[in-house]
Amino acid sequence: MAKKLVIKNRIDPSEMVLNDKLIYLNRVSKVVKGGKRLSFSALVVAGDGKGHVGIGTGKSAEVPDAINKAGAVAKKSLIKVQLSGTTIPYETVVKFGAAKVLLKPASPGTGIIAGGSVRAVVEAAGIKDILTKSLGSANKTNVAKATILGLSQFKDPKVQIARRKGIVSDTAEAEEVADV
Taking the complete model, does pTM exceed 0.90, yes or no? Predict the structure, then answer.
């Protein structure tokens, strides 16, 4: 059974100024009759620093081509991150494959306490204060995908409380219309 990250609402990257950052570059080889055939696999994160972020992988015989392909995939898979000031609204633990990531809000001035792929994704999203811990697998691709999954699941706490209490506010109606 294959793991797949599902992006619900597509965001048009044409009017955004996106920064690409290479997370990981891997040289992979395929053994064929005449010897080894080398290619390169790249993992890239793209974000505008204002709550939009996406990741992508690309594979090619040349390094620049692999990075360009990964950047194009990252721009197609952008998500909107629900921010609460300079941090995230609440704590969450997300699992993708064997990678498990803890995302925890931090007080202003704390900075980004994260390592590797989590740091790259969080910086690209524009989050300034966050505490994270990568648990389980250290696979950079799965850790990055788990981080994206976690960031995409955040909802506005005030809207959720209003929805549970049955109070319909203007923002809740606007969000429901946007979801449809």
Answer: no
SS3 category, 110: coil
* Burial of 165 per CB tally in 10 Å (0-12, 13-18, 19+): exposed
Name the residue among 89, 157, 81, 95 with its Cα closest to residue 126.
81
Question: Which comes out higher in pLDDT, residue 17 or 90?
Answer: 90
At position 6, the amino acid (one-letter code) is: V
Q: In this structure, what are the phi and psi dihedrals at residue 169, rounded to the nearest 5 degrees?
A: -110, 170
SS3 per-residue string spanning 122-144: HHHHCCCCEEEEEEECCCHHHHH
How far is it, in rounded angstroms, from Cα 170 to Cα 164? 15
For the chain, what is the mean pLDDT?
87
